Amino acid sequence: MTRTRHGVSPWLDGAAKKATYPALAERLEVPIVIIGGGLTGAATAYACAAAGLRVALLEADRLGHGPSGMGPGIIQQTPPVGMVQMEAQHGRRLAKAVSTAWRRAALELAATVRRLNVHAGFTPADGLTWAHTADAARSLERELAARRAAGLEGTWLTARALAGIGLEGAGGIRTRGDATVDPVKLCRGFARAAAARGAMLFERTRAVTVSQGRGHIEIQSPRGRIACETVIVATGEPAGLFEPLVRHAAACSAYAVQTPPARAAVRAAVRDRSLILQDSQQPPHRLAWTAGDRILWTGADSPRVGDRVLPQTVVQRTGQLMYELSLVLPDISGVQPEHGWHIPYSVGRDGLPIVGPHRGYPHHLFAFGLGTNPAAAFLASRLLLRHLSGTSDKADAAFGFARAAR
């Protein structure tokens, strides 16, 4: 019988534990410093370096070994908040700007991975959001109508069409442009591309203080110091040094399981294993097939729990997720997952990311509330580069603190 590895993602299980890049142990001056070596930080370092900007990145542990490496590696071309909800919260113009930018980022991420030849198991897929009940299907039909009104694509699948691919439901929306990826390899691939273009990368380098000096910002680490003109905070959530900004984002955890290679009966039950599935529940569950015919199943999102109760929470959520998966795929009953773990993330209070400057922190740029979707991290890197180069457009304001403060 499979023994479940609790508390570690399959991407980090077996990943090299030795640092690739040195720790900062000197005094440096560089125009741009990025704090945070997850996917957002690595992609932003690459974007800056590719644009000819001098940049340094500081990571407290190892690149890609924080929340990015615990993520599910599911790239979705739709935002975590639907068009209908965004229009109700913020109006049609902002909803369209967010959705359009999100889809473009997912497509550009795929193109960039191919261009840089990043070996991260990137596998394109269609996405399918399906509804179990007639009421939920009607809500999805309204969502599809709102997307089409905004110029976004989507195809309606009937209950009969869902049955044809092995799903019970009343209807669903099929979209193109999703993918699965190994998030650790993706992060480190962007880091290598950044270093090849002159970015300075430092692992095991914690930012102890960030202070405003005379005409510059000074960042103190345990063994070094670095002065810069602009600091980009790509830590995912505003904790620690930027505690006053915590009110803008909610700290959450999703949970995930990955099964052993699926038995023939399970494989036969799903007739299209190239799809990334998402149900219409709130919060949703997501299903993707990974290497070796394994099933990745995520969900059970909830507010972050404390470290003391986290281990038992992971065990409980792992059992819960396997039961919920058996309701979708009955033949999975009795199977023990290879991995069960939690995915720490944050979201803006309205469910959307917050990327850009804050009036209380001159010469700072922030990227908070990005959720678990790698497309959001890549989108943030594009937004941050436009802020740095002075080429931001009106649509970029849809992701800023001004929206979050409404």
What does this structure look like?
This protein is α/β, with parallel strands linked by helices. Helices cover 32% and strands 28% of the residues. The protein is built from 11 helices and 20 strands. The protein has helices at residues 39-50, 67-70, 83-90, 92-116, 134-149, 159-164, 183-196, 264-269, 310-328, 374-389, 401-404; strands at residues 5-6, 27-29, 32-35, 55-58, 74-75, 123-131, 155-158, 171-180, 200-202, 209-212, 217-220, 225-228, 230-236, 249-258, 275-279, 286-290, 294-303, 339-348, 354-358, 361-368. Strands 1, 5, 6, 7, 8, 14, 15, 16, 17 and 18 form a 10-stranded mixed β-sheet that branches. The chain is globular and about 65 Å long. 50% of the residues are buried. The model has no long low-confidence stretch (mean pLDDT 94).
Task: Present the secondary structure layout.
Layout: E1 5-6, E2 27-29, E3 32-35, H1 39-50, E4 55-58, H2 67-70, E5 74-75, H3 83-90, H4 92-116, E6 123-131, H5 134-149, E7 155-158, H6 159-164, E8 171-180, H7 183-196, E9 200-202, E10 209-212, E11 217-220, E12 225-228, E13 230-236, E14 249-258, H8 264-269, E15 275-279, E16 286-290, E17 294-303, H9 310-328, E18 339-348, E19 354-358, E20 361-368, H10 374-389, H11 401-404
Parallel strand pairs: 1-18, 2-12, 3-4, 3-13, 4-9, 6-15, 13-20
Antiparallel strand pairs: 5-8, 6-8, 7-8, 10-11, 11-12, 14-17, 14-18, 15-16, 16-17, 19-20
Helix pairs in contact: 1-7, 1-10, 3-4, 4-10
Uncertain segments of ≥5 residues (pLDDT<50)? Answer: none
Derived from helix and strand composition plus strand pairing, the structural class reads: alpha/beta
Q: How many helices?
A: 11
**Global morphology:** globular
Extended strand count:
20
Mean pLDDT: 94
Strand content: 25-35%
Distance between the termini: 52 Å
The major pleated sheet works out as: 10 strands, mixed
Helix content: 25-40%
Rg over CA atoms, rounded to whole Å, is: 21 Å
